[in-house]
Amino acid sequence: MSDMDLVAYINEENKRRKRRRIVLTNGDHAQNGWKSHVYSAVIGNVHEKCSVTITKENISSRCKTFENHYEAISKMLSQSGFGWDWINNKLSIDSEDVWLKYVAVRNLSFPHFDCIVHM
């Protein structure tokens, strides 16, 4: 995942949750994460807008989570039966059978899948 893809993903997530945007510019990414002034800006913005104190480690952890989600969704989209709903900005699945086969191959379990399907 490139730096610009990660920035775009973070921005979309922020718009959905808080309708706020944190703009991270290209070139502010160091070898082992964001440059220190970016972390400071994010920490300050989150504290100012949400009254929550976070740390550099919280931000790094969230970025890793985003990267893992991006990777999982990218792998799904590369397989037959999965697509992207551009109107609702979510993963679409052709049929329940496609999902059940995907879960079976990966030996995943979802204890309340039947309840989630009806939501």
From TrEMBL:
Every Myb/SANT-like domain range: 27-102
Superkingdom field: Eukaryota
InterPro entries: Myb/SANT-like_dom
Protein name per UniProt: Myb/SANT-like domain-containing protein
